[in-house]
């Protein structure tokens, strides 16, 4: 019994409080809206406009479309190597709110007022392909005021941060370009309720601060109206902004392309040197180490996108193979020239065949030997030398032939590699 009494008391108390609250709010609304004559025109106007305004109701008849005109004003951008474009920009939203019209002469000639977006109906424009919903939500839009004109035009220019995922392709690094798409549209309204339009070209790049690493260009901004099978009577308009990002490659050119060219010449120089010389061994080793260093450095530098290896990496890999080949060949040729074994027939016949050729003689028999290149003298000369020396001599000729052969083969290989890598980059 007792408990019920206490409970009932609380119920009465609660009801009493509630009724009191209701009365209080009613007073504020009606009282505030009634005594308008003594206040400023601006306050009068605000009371007039927002007394029975509902910010959740679209400001048109339900069969009339609300046109939203958009203009994107990029200020700066960031692009991370994993393909996330962050665009800091201003965005102007322009529409007509038929509930917000007044006659300026009634309000001391006020033709426009500032209004917190919180009080207004706002279009629910979102970035569709966003990687980050929190970054472009209405919190930022709510922080800036909008202008409302006496004819009902509303314009809001909030700063927004658009995060969008691009599909990066690093195949032609550091000459890479990426296309980034930003798609905007109403999140929940169909095109018959709310339509989006571009303001002129839709983008104003005037206030854009150039990025030090990327050059950003607008490829196009266009409105796309989609229809889906589900709803044949509804359209789904959206706006697609396509940006082209081009890397400023000069630093990478200096750090990675120039060394690549240097390494080509280094490898060729190794092959061109006499294989008996110590310089060739030293240079071949240095060349090999340089290749390794460059590849490791490049590996940390080049962004990875999982599908296509950057062509520069492929080039360094191929060049490393050639450098390894040059190093091993150098070792083999040095070994070969100390052999005192009898030459197999096929080798000696090949050597003789090449030496019988003028160009072959010119290449194989170097300076001091070229004088004695004429048949008779060579034989006479050879007669005077011991047999093991003669064998060594023919091995030496064989080695020289291989040296030249490898030199030209490597040049040819480099040309083929460069043509395939560069050409495929040009045609794409
Ligand atoms: C909206 O834009 C369309 C096409 O530009 C136009 O035909 C229509 O009258 C506009 N509606 C309003 C309410 O301004
Ligand atoms: C309303 O007035 C503003 C400012 O004068 C103007 O920019 C805007 O175009 C007008 N809107 C309409 C729908 O006439
Ligand atoms: C920004 O870059 C563009 C093209 O790369 C150039 O035309 C423009 O002058 C640059 N602007 C500034 C402020 O550096
Ligand atoms: C589309 O409009 C047509 C003609 O007004 C109507 O017959 C049809 O039922 C509508 N379809 C849907 C899915 O609303």
TrEMBL record:
Gene3D superfamilies, A to Z: Neurotransmitter-gated ion-channel ligand-binding domain
GO cellular component: membrane
Cited Pfam families: Neur_chan_LBD (PF02931)
Domain of life: Eukaryota
Leader sequence segment: 1-19
Bilayer-crossing regions: 253-273, 285-302, 314-333, 401-423
Residues annotated as domain Neurotransmitter-gated ion-channel ligand-binding: 44-248
Entry annotated with the keyword Transmembrane helix: yes
Record keywords, A-Z: Membrane, Signal, Transmembrane, Transmembrane helix
Gene Ontology molecular function terms on file: extracellular ligand-gated monoatomic ion channel activity; transmembrane signaling receptor activity
PANTHER family: NEUROTRANSMITTER GATED ION CHANNEL (PTHR18945)
Protein known as: Neurotransmitter-gated ion-channel ligand-binding domain-containing protein
